[in-house]
Amino acid sequence: MDQSQKASYHAGEAKGQVQEKTSQMMDKARDTAQSAKESMQETGQQMKAKAQGAADAMKDSVGANK
Q: How far is CA 7 from the centre of its chain?
């Protein structure tokens, strides 16, 4: 293998490593985004439940739930 072939081989090897690292980083970012989405949905559901509870309590206090 001459010097040019070695350089080409190493360049290809480095490119493959960069592509793999990029893929790993994208997977991690995707997982983080999915986790954040799920967390926000859960928070939204909790807030909705608390608001409903507050509304029901208010209706009870004024006798609107009868």
A: 39
- The answer to whether residues 44 and 36 touch, using CB atoms and an 8 Å cutoff, is no
pTM: 0.62
Q: What is the 3-state secondary structure of 9-53?
A: HHHHHHHHHHHHHHHHHHHHHHHHHHHHHHHHHHHHHHHHHHHHH
Residues 6+ apart with CB under 8 A from 15: none
Contacts of residue 1, defined as CB under 8 A and 6 or more positions apart, other chains included, come to 9
Q: 24-59: per-residue pLDDT in tens?
A: 999 999 999 999 999 999 999 999 999 999 999 998
